[in-house]
Amino acid sequence: MTEPEPPDAGAFSDIDALPEPVFELLFGVLRGMAEHPEIQRVRRTAWDALQPMPGQRLLDAGAGAGEVARALAAAVGEQGEVVAMDSSARTLQAARALTPPELPIRFVQGSVTDLEFPAETFDGVRSERVLQHVPDPDRAVRELARVTRRGGRVCLVDTDWESAALDGVPANLATAVRERMLNVAPGHHNDMGRTLRRRLLRASLDDVTATPVTCLFLDPASAAVVLPVMDPAIPPEAGMIPDDLREQWFTAIAAAGERGEFLAVLTIWVAAGVRR
Ligand SMILES: C[S@@+](CC[C@H](N)C(=O)[O-])C[C@H]1O[C@@H](n2cnc3c(N)ncnc32)[C@H](O)[C@@H]1O
Fold first, then answer.
1. Mutate to test the pocket of ligand 1, among 12, 142, 268 (most ligand atoms within 8 A of CB)
2. Which of 98, 109, 220, 247 shows the greatest Cβ crowding within 10 Å of its Cβ?
3. Atom of ligand 1 at shortest distance to CA of 65?
4. Residue 74: exposure state from Cβ atoms within 10 A (0-12, 13-18, ≥19)
5. DSSP three-state, residue 126
6. Which residues line ligand 1 (CB under 6 A)?
7. pLDDT in tens, 172-188
8. What is the pLDDT of residues 72-98, one digit of tens each?
9. Could you give all domains of the chain from N- to C-terminal order, each with its CATH number?
């Protein structure tokens, strides 16, 4: 008997299986997001929640292009170490190529649901916008807690895609596209952001905090960096926009931008707790 296929959790659940041009596109999306002021605001909140200090050993699980891992490596200094872990070999290779050799970062391939580290390896762990793609996120949170030392901090960042809202385009068009966006990958956890607090509590972390950071986008180009559904470069094959609405959608967004009436919001949550 063959194993049933897991439900599609979106392109980021298995980047290595994608054709090269799609990988390049997604890696470019990660790089673009890292430069967006609203994502930088989310990351400052997460930095404060993790409380990195010189000399610490830290884990970034699902590190992507590695921007945060590099910043953490600079903060922990040569007495410390950052492990940038990702399930994608290609992503790790591309992230390594962006990393100055003097930074104390080790790139490791692995899965956040089966971490190959002994218990209490790290002073702090973080995972940003990863759990939304993972079939068993509670198992991942238990793993992240397991590898954190007692008194160390676990910081999770994730999107609440259901919080996405828009003004300036016809409401029926926005509703139709939003509906499709939320259903394009059935195994994808659209509600992950707001569930992080509960997941940390269930993993027996102490002093759990949860901070919603609502990102505001006042022009279509700015929104497109974080909300792929606003990005005309995302190909029709991604299935995110109904084919018969695609032209109407991008025309309406551009017109809202030209009138100065475009507005989009998306809440990304930062949750943290202390390993007991
Ligand atoms: C949306 S990207 C976020 C990357 C980075 N944390 C950031 O915020 O820019 C999701 C990342 O998680 C990785 N990923 C997906 N499933 C994973 C798993 N089970 N274990 C570790 N990494 C995983 C992907 O390869 C990808 O690099």
1. 12
2. 220
3. 9
4. middle
5. strand
6. 12-13, 15, 30, 61-64, 86-88, 91, 111-113, 128-130, 133-134
7. 999 999 999 999 888 89
8. 999 999 999 999 999 999 999 999 999
9. 11-161+189-213+269-275 (3.40.50.150)
